[in-house]
Amino acid sequence: MGESAQTVRTICPYCGVGCGVEVATAGDSVIVRGDKSHPANLGRLCSKGAALPDTLSLDGRLLHPEVGGERVDWDTALDKVAGGIAGVIARHGPEAVAFYVSGQLLTEDYYVANKLMKGFLGSANIDTNSRLCMSSAVAGHQRALGADCVPGCYEDLELADLVVITGSNLAWCHPVIYQRIARAKRERPDMKVIVVDPRRTATCDIADLHLPLAPGSDVLLFNGLLNYLRRTDALDWSFLEEHTSGFAQALQSARDCAGSIPAVADGCGLPEQSVAEFFHWFARTQKTVTLFSQGVNQSSSGVDKVNAIINCHLATGRIGRPGMGPFSMTGQPNAMGGREVGGLANQLAAHRAFDDAAALERVAGFWRAADMARKPGLKAVDLFEAVADGRIRAVWIMATNPAVSLPDADRVREALRVCELVIVSDCERDTDTTACADILLPAAAWGEKEGTVTNSERRISRQRAFRDAPGEARPDWWIVSEVARRLGHTEAFGYESAAEIFREHAALSGLLNGGADRTGHDFDISALASISDEEYAALQPVQWPVTAARGKGVRGTARLFGDGRFPSASGKARFVAVRPRPPVHLPEGGFPLVLNTGRVRDHWHTLTRTGKAARLSVHTVEPYVEMHPADAAARGLDEAMIAEVRSHWGCMRARVKITSGQREGSVFVPMHWSDRFAARARVDALVNPVTDPVSGQPESKHTPVEVSRWQAAWYGFVLTREPLPWDIKDDADYRVRARADGAWRYEIAGSEAFDDPALRARALIGRGLSEDDKDEWVEYHDAAQGRYRAAHLHGGRLEACVFIESRPQLPAREWLLALFAEQSLDESSRMALLSGRPPGGQGDAGRIICSCFGVGLNTLREAIANEGLTTPEAIGAALRAGTNCGSCIPELKTLIAECKDQNAA
Ligand code: SF4
Prior knowledge:
The chain is 31% helix and 19% strand. The chain is globular, with a radius of gyration of 27 Å. Iron/sulfur cluster is lined by residues 12, 14-15, 17-19, 41, 45-46, 48-49, 174-176.
C-alpha cells in the first residue's frame, strides 16, 4: 500500500466480541488488521474479521430506493413510506404499525427508530432480532440484578482460575474471546475450563471437563450446584445476608428438584463423576466465571436458566470482582446498544421499563413526544404473528432477514407476502425478506457510516466510515429521520449527524439513570452528553457507566456490583427460585430427535456478507445435519448423503455429517442458508415458534424433528467461472451455491434419474456459455458406474465442469477449482481434468481447514504424519496454517489427535 494510504480505526461488524479493526485504504485497496490498541481484541481477529475486505464488493448491493420493484428517487420513496404509515394509523390505529430492527444497526440508528415508534407513532411495536439471541439474558439480569447489566469484563475470563462455558461454541461463535481464554490457559496451566454443551464442539479443545448434558437440563444442573454449594458450606454468608434477598426460596427449589448428585446426573444424562467434579471445582474456586450464550438463552425456559446460573454466583459472592461473575456473551455486534436505547418492545429507553411511570413521563417530556406509547409492544414472534393475522398492517424491517431467521420462517414469509405494506431498509438487493417488500430503501453498510456500538462487556466503541456510501445508500438514522419529518415531527428529528443523536441518547441516559440511588450502577453515559463533534470523532472505547463522577476522560467502568450495591429498589440482588421446565413438545409423535441450531466457524447470519467471500465459503460449503452414528445408522443414512429434516412446522434438506461428538438423539443444523444460496435449506422453517414466557425468546435449540433419507438418484457438482442462470431455490433438486476463488461452486443432487447425462450436463452448465470455434467440450461417461463428467473450455481456459455420480462420494473440488486461475490448461492438467485429481501424483489439498492460507485437510494430514508434527505451532511453522487468525487451531489439534490415535492403533 502506497504513501497515500489512510488508516481508520473502527469495529468489526459481526459478533458481540466487538473487535477493534484498523482499515487502511488507498484507492481501491483495503487492508484490515486487528487494532492492537482496542481492549476487546488487542490486535487479534478471527477468520471473519480478517476477511472483511473480501465482503466489500458492490455485487448485489441495493443502491437506489425502489417502490413496487421500480427505481424511484428518495423523495418519492420517503413520501410513500410516510404516507403508508400515516394511512395505516389513520385507518387502524398505531398498533397496526410495527418496526422490526436489528443488532446490526448502530446505536444512533436504533435510538432514532425507537424514538419515532415509541414517542411519535404512539405504539411500542418495535422489536429487534436481538430478541432471538439474548433477550433471556436481559430478563435474567433484570430479575436478579435489578437492571440489564453485565457485571464483568473480558479480562475476568483471563484472570479466572475456572471458566465454565455453557451453551456456547465459543471457538466458532466468538473466536477472539476463545483465543484469549486459550492463551490464558496456556500461560497458567492450572486454570480450568469446563464446557457444558450437549455437543462436543471445537470449544472442548481447551476443556478439562466436558459435560454433554441432555438438552434442556441446564436448570437442573445449576440448581444441583446451588444445593451442593450449600451442603459443602461454600457460600459467602456475609454477601448473602447484606446484599441479596430470596436465597431460602431459591435453595428450597433447588433442593426439591436437585437434591443429590446422582439425581442431577440422572436428570442431566451425565456421569455422576463428571457432575461431582464440576461441583467440586466450582465450590473450591473463588475466581470463577460462568460464560453463557445462545445455548442457554434460546429456550422456552431461557430466563430461568440464566437465573439458575446467576444464583450460584450470588450465593458465593462471586460477582463484579476481578476474575469472577456470570458473563453473557451477546451474539450480534450491537445487541447491547439496542438494549441501551430501548430497542426491545418491552423496554422504554435507557434500560427503563414501561411500568416505571416516572421514567415514562421523563422520556415523554425529554422527547417532547407527540404521541407517547404507554405500554409494551409485541415481541418478535408475536409481532410477526400479528402481521400474519392482520392486526399489523404495515411493517418496516431494518437490517435483518426475518424470512430466514425467525422460527416457523415459512409462516413469517407468508405473513409478509400478504401484509398491506412491507418496507425494508437493507444494504442488499436480493434477500428472502426484500423479496417480500413493497418499498426498498438502500442503507449504508459497514465502512460507510458513523456511529457507535456496544460489545458484550459494555464497551462503547466508534464505528467509523472509511469510504463513501455507494449509489444513493444512506445511514439508517437519516432514513428514519426523513420519514419522521414527513410525518410532521420536524423539530424532534432535525438531526444533522450521528454525533448529535449520540449526545441526546447520552443525556437521556443520565436523566433516567442518574441520582444517588442509581449513579454508577446502570446504563448512564451522561458524562458523554456534552462531547463535541471532534471528541465524538475521536471517542476511545469506553465501558459504561460513564458518569460525571467517573469522568469522560477515562475508560469507564470495568466491573459492576463488586461493592454489593445493585440497581434494584432495595439495592440488593435477588435470588430467583427456579425449577426445571421441560422444553415444549407437541402432543403428536413422529419427531423423536431434538434439533439444535447454531453458527459455523466462517459464516455470519444469512450469508448476505460472508457469502461474498470465497475464503469464508470454503470451510463449510453446504448446510449439513450433524448426527450421532447410531441415529444415522438407525435411519440408513451414510456420510454425505442428502437427508430431509422435518418438524411439525416445516422441512429442509441438508448433507449428512456423522460424528460421535453429537449427542445421541440430537441433531445439529447451522442457521445460515437462505433461498439465495440453497434450495430448501432454511432451518428456521422447522424451528418451534414457542417462546420463553418472560423474555419472548424462541426455543431455537430444541425442536422435535425426524431425519430421513432424501432419495437422490444422482449426486454431483458444477464448478463454473460465471454464476449459472438457473434458480437456486428450485426445490425439485438439491442445490447449493457457494463463492469460490475466481469461480462458483454448486453442489447438486436430483431425485429423478435421466437417460442422457450429456444433455443433462449441458442443461446444467451449457446455457450462458459462449459457443464459437474456441469452445471445447470434453466428456467421460461410464454408464455402468452411473458416472458422467464433462468440462467446457474456451480457448484452452477452463470455463466450467460438471461431475455426476450415482453415489455421494465425488472427487475433491479444491484442485479443480485451482484450475480456474490458469489462463490455459497445460496438457497434463487437461489429461487429468476428468479424473478430478491432480496429475503426476501431485498432492490434492482437500477440504480447506485454514481459510486464511488455504491449507487443506489432506495437506495437513500428510504433513502431520510425514513430518511428525505434534503441535499447532509446529504445523504453523511448516504450513502457516493457524498463524493468522487462529480460528482453525481447534481443528488442527483434532487432526493431530486423530493421527496419534491412528499411530497407536
Ligand atoms: Fe469480528 Fe471475529 Fe472479533 Fe467477532 S471475534 S468481532 S467476528 S473479528
